[in-house]
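User: Thanks for the earlier help. One more: Superoxide dismutase. Can you show the sequence and predicted structure together?

Assistant: Of course, both are below.
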Amino acid sequence: MVNLASLWQYLALQAPLHSAMSTDALNLTQLGLTAYTLPALPYAYDALEPHISAQIMELHHSKHHQAYVTNLNAALQAHVTAVAAGDVAAQIALQQTIKFNGGGHINHSLFWKNLAPPGSKETRPEAAVGLVKAIEATWGSLEEFKRAFGASLLGIQGSGWGWLVKEGGNGGGLRIVTTKDQDPVVGGDVPVFGVDMWEHAYYLQYLNGKAAYVENIWKVINWATAGERFGGVVEEKNEL
């Protein structure tokens, strides 16, 4: 398991690393980092049917997520090489690639754990009593929250994600945020759960019916995991 905080720390310490290590020695292993790998799903590809098809899940996980992992590893190694060579322009040029693919890896790794087979105990709001109470205190009711969250998802222009986050400040309140493309939740906010609104997450099954996808996603939301994130039981923001 790799701590992403150490990765960002490495990126911030480029100049000292360049002065301390030779081009031949400088690599991910020397920095205590290992290549990222595609995480296994905690359920079968067909486990979320009929709400998310096995075909979507297999392509989404084994192709799309794998591509983010592969491209992230390649970009990180290229960045290490650029640091060793003192090539600041190359380091700068790689930042967007690292951000995009690193964000894709973070977001999808969280997303798979956001979901659970329909009808399972994890998909019942009763599995997250504390979280549901906080939602009701903020939005008035769980249904009002779902409507607000759905409106935010459907309001995303192009590709992106919708998130319920626990604020790092202001007493740790809840709010709905959206991120563009593969941008992850950053700062002190903790993602409680997120929904992927890229077309590859739904198009093969729902075509252009995004509203139906948004409605049905609630049948497979893993409230148990969401409740644990809200309660601080798990710290998945920086750990993959």
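User: Great, one quick takeaway?

Assistant: Confidence is low (pLDDT under 50) at residues 8-25.
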